Amino acid sequence: MLDRLVRAVPVPPTFFFSASLESDDPFRYLLDAGIDLRHVLHGEQHFAYSAMAYAGDTLTVAERIVDVTSKRGGAMELLTKETAFSREGERIAVATTVIVVRDPEVTA
């Protein structure tokens, strides 16, 4: 009975933001790309929902960079990352995050 009660509790809409930070090293992909975290800003984020997620669900997370755009003559780059959340193969939500990376050596 407790399983049914827990399963009836939907996660809040912004749960997916914090869930993507649950890995051991959530910013490793930036470090692996040679990005100095001192020059990183959170640009924007939005979510697309396809199904409800509930307390107790086991979710699979898949992240990928889908776009890199240079702005202001190279003074900043915008990285767009998509994070897909699935439950047993069913897509639950996609979080799209834009990360701003400043290049302190470029002034424009």
TrEMBL record:
Domain FAS1-like dehydratase: 7-93
Gene3D superfamilies xrefs: Hotdog Thioesterase
Record-given protein name: FAS1-like dehydratase domain-containing protein
